[in-house]
Specification:
Elements (H helix, E strand, L loop, with lengths): L13 E5 L5 H13 L15 E5 L10 H4 L2 E4 L6 E4 L1 H7 L3 H10 L4 H7 L2 E4 L11 E4 L1 H4 L8
Parallel strand pairs: 1-2, 1-6, 2-5
Antiparallel strand pairs: 3-4
Helix pairs in contact: 1-4
């Protein structure tokens, strides 16, 4: 018989990741797994018991190859003929970190639970963030896999 965790037994941890030279897709997979709670033995698909992730230095996140200039993100305004496109370079100038947020969002299942889980992702430019009171577990991307960081 499967034992499901109860709401009052949930305990959320905090993780911190330095985004300097991190490859965006690889970083997004790690974040999606943590905020979904799949790294825990008590994972339950219909409950939100993932952990919080703080990503600092999001202005230094990298794309591999020529994706920074050539990849396109599409959105629709809701009006006829209202499809808009933007490449990561321009998106990064407007909103740094939005490309990472989109990547993580698309790795989560659709629906209200995914929206709630996405709020556990906190992104900041630079080293400063307002969550310094939390007891962080540091995730070092280079130690997980040497392909996680781009070396120029």
């Amino acid at each position: 018989m499967t034992n499901f965790i109860k709401k009052n037994e949930l305990k959320n941890d905090w993780y911190i990741i330095d985004g300097t030279n991190a490859v965006i897709g690889r970083l997004a997979t790690i974040i999606a797994k943590i905020i979904r709670g799949k790294h825990k033995t008590t994972f339950t698909p219909h409950m939100d018991h993932g952990d919080f992730v703080v990503v600092k230095n999001i202005e230094n996140i990298k794309f591999t190859g020529k994706k920074f200039k050539n990849k396109k993100y599409y959105r629709h305004t809701g009006h006829p003929g209202g499809i808009k496109e933007i490449n990561p370079e321009n998106l990064h100038k407007k909103k740094p970190g939005e490309a990472l947020k989109l990547a993580v969002k698309r790795m989560l299942p659709g629906g209200p639970l995914a929206k709630k889980q996405l709020t556990k992702l906190k992104m900041y430019s630079g080293n400063e963030h307002p969550h310094s009171a939390q007891n962080f577990t540091v995730i070092e991307l280079a130690k997980l896999n040497n392909k996680n960081l781009l070396r120029n």
